[in-house]
Amino acid sequence: MIFEPRTIKGVTFRNRVLRSSVGGRMAAYDGTVTDVWSNFEQTFADGGVGGIISTTFSTNRRRQTPFEYPSLSEQRFVPPLKRHVAEIRARGCPYIIQIGDPGAATQLSLFGEDADALSSSSGFEFLYGYANRRVAMSAREIRTVIEEFRVAAGRAREAGADGIEITAEKGYLIHQFLNPGLNRRQDEWGGTDEGRFRLLEEIVTRVREGVGDDFLLGIRLAARDFNYLPYANFILRFPWTFPLRHHLFGNDLPTTLGFGARLKQLGVDVLHVVTGTGFPGPKGNPGAFPLREIKLFFNATRHLSRKAAARATLLNLVPERIALPLLSIGWREQAGVSLEEAEAFRRQVGLPVITNGGYQSRSDIDRGLSTCDFVSMARALIATPDLISRYRDGAGQPEEACTFCNRCCARSATSPLGCYEPERFGGDFDRMVQQILAYNTPVRVPPPQIAPAGAAEAASR
Ligand SMILES: Cc1cc2nc3c(=O)[nH]c(=O)nc-3n(C[C@H](O)[C@H](O)[C@H](O)COP(=O)(O)O)c2cc1C
After folding, report:
1. Which positions fall inside the NADH:flavin oxidoreductase/NADH oxidase N-terminal domain (predicted)?
2. Mean pLDDT of all residues in the chain?
3. Cα dihedral 39, 408, 238, 273 sign
4. What do you get for the CA distance between the two ends of the chain, in Å?
5. Domain with 239 in it: what CATH number?
6. Which of 203, 228, 359, 363 has the fewest other C-beta atoms within 10 Å?
7. Is residue 426 one of the residues assigned to a domain?
8. What confidence tens digit (pLDDT) does each residue in 44-82 have?
9. Residue 242's pLDDT is what?
10. DSSP category for residue 139
């Protein structure tokens, strides 16, 4: 099953494992893609995945996701992107461009900017974003957002992508409208399920008009919001919304299945089903809570606002032995963390579904594919970019497998993208640095040879 090609909307994926969005600081500061970015994407194309979904390309000029992530907010970004997308596709790997707007979840900026606070409703949130408070968008600002998505989608097509994915999850702007714990508007953009869905509906409608009926269009959607995770954040999210279940849980599965059915009517071709709200989060990135790396991020952004300074100070003050167990509540490794929800979408909505979250072993991938059309993976592929080629050649899970420590996620906004888990390299710090640098260079460097676990100790005896 895993190596069976599958065609959707005229795009043939050579197998059923997709590289899920992986963002790193690889574009130029203004959002132009670079040779480094292209080389990184080509590594996965050569590693045997069936297709690649890009990191989030920002649709808004001010709200990058974050610095040195690519953008489609201006026409000038198209020519270099076109050249690089052709290089990736030449490796036989379809390329889907994800577009999104982080809204008030914007992680960093040159200076604190008003645009980075814009959201569905006003409110306070401790962990995500850096603005002191979220600020409700005006109807006019909402119209601008819709237009920006339409234009960015058209640019993705012009750049030669095989399709687009709109991110409506992760606690980003569209999700800030969908999620009843965050959207407290009483106008046409909130109040009811239809009201909260309206922004996504209008974006999908306008994007479809813009790219045409023959272009692959996917939506990345949270099937359940799990607003009570991470715990620290849900307690500090003000004002609390009523009924309390909206605050605690956000959207439930029946509600999002309704969204899925509507998306099908609107002409969406594929659904990428995930769970949770916010990045990184225990449902989106099942595994360990990366305390030290989050501290690094908080310290690196503390100059941006009073909230950013306060959260950094707090985390620096509380001893790790107290902070770690508290902040780790709800974080645990789980293969196919959203599989149950993805299956429900496959069954009830009937669109092709991509399942995501915590996959690595061949048997877990097979389990995901027994009910869904595709499995998408990020962290396990950062650890082993040619994992799928290895599976094709009959190999089992590599010894240097991903440990789901989540250090890569928490570092993605401050450091070069790569695996920061020394354990995987048998404690060999140099090889870890080599792999990180091999990901962040404009020319292909052979990946460092990783010795079997225990080899380092054996060599020193
Ligand atoms: C370093 C890193 C960067 C990521 N960047 C993005 C992104 O730009 N957009 C997005 O939708 N998801 C992003 N993700 C989330 C992944 O696409 C994926 O959903 C998540 O890591 C869970 O899948 P996994 O268990 O296979 O890692 C990122 C994940 C990692 C580890």
Report:
1. 2-225
2. 95
3. positive
4. 45
5. 3.20.20.70
6. 363
7. no
8. 999 999 999 999 999 999 998 788 999 999 999 999 999
9. 87
10. H
